[in-house]
Amino acid sequence: xxxxxxxxxxxxxxxxxxxxxxxxxxxxxxxxxxxxxxxxxxxxxxxxxxxxxxxxxxxxxxxxxxxxxxxxxxxxxxxxxxxxxxxxxxxxxxxxxxxxxx
Length: 102
Known about the structure:
- This protein has two helices and six strands, in the order βαβββαββ.
- The chain has a single domain, classed as Beta Barrel (Cathepsin D, subunit A, domain 1), CATH 2.40.70.
- By secondary structure, the protein is mostly beta strands.
- The longest helix is centred in the N-terminal third of the chain and has 6 residues, at about 10-15.
């Protein structure tokens, strides 16, 4: 898990082994301020018993996998930075399904 990462990252060999191939590219900003253009794909990520469809950055073979904050929040998991723990929210946040009266 990396709360500084928006999207999740998986090494290319693992993605290719399950048939996921690049669908596009996106520019990402790195911690040192530099930018890099990386291949991306989409797929299902299962975490803490929940499944979510997510953008996945295709990393180098030796890259450390990252679970990005988007996947966490999509299944209702919140990061507590003070205690460095994950907390399941009682409900997943969703804006109103009904139009707001004017």
